[in-house]
Amino acid sequence: MVEQLDDVDFALAAFRRDGAWVVDELAHDLPGEVEALAEALRRFSGDDLVVALLGLDEESFLVLRVDPDRTRLLLWDAAAAEEWDVAASALDFLGLADDEGDDDGDLVGDLDLLADLGLSGEELEDILDDSDGFADEVLSEVTRVLGFGPQFDDAVGFVPA
Q: Is the dihedral of CA 18, 112, 138, 135 positive or negative?
């Protein structure tokens, strides 16, 4: 049985409405599968751009980007697939076997999924490589670059140093 999102630390959707970022909590009864999440994200009313941010535990997260005609994702620490159905679903979506994410810290997916929003794949990789922080700390830094850091911090209860 596939876990629901109530098993993750946080599940948020960020989208633009009339040019401004909005951050909303995702329903915790959604199935923890990439395709189901992508379908749910497409229902948000915004400017045709939705990004989901899921904290799987303190050391792993999933970023899922839904555009009108495609879904892209990035999983920080592919080894999370051993414990989280949504991470295993991400590996399946990417066409990777579960054993391709055995090393702690493996980054899989599309590093450029946020490039058109102001965060190139190289910059994103630098943030992830330089970080010793927890998932919420890393995503706080990422969302600040994207322009909705304070909304993210409020939603997850993170107080930046």
A: positive
Cα of 63 vs its chain's centroid, Å:
2
Per-residue confidence in pLDDT tens, the chain, 161 aa: 455 666 788 999 999 888 899 999 987 777 789 998 998 888 886 667 899 999 998 889 999 999 878 899 999 989 999 888 899 999 999 999 765 544 556 789 999 999 999 999 999 999 988 777 888 999 999 999 999 999 999 999 988 76
CA–CA distance, 85 with 83 (Å, rounded to integer): 7
Query: What six digits make up the tokens of 22?
Result: 């909005």
Distance from C-alpha of 156 to C-alpha of 87, rounded to nearest angstrom:
20
Residues with Cβ within 8 Å of residue 73, at least 6 apart in sequence:
34, 62, 63, 64, 65, 90, 93, 94, 109, 110, 113
Q: Which tokens is 86 given?
A: 């949504």
Whether 20 and 12 have beta carbons less than 8 Å apart is answered as: no
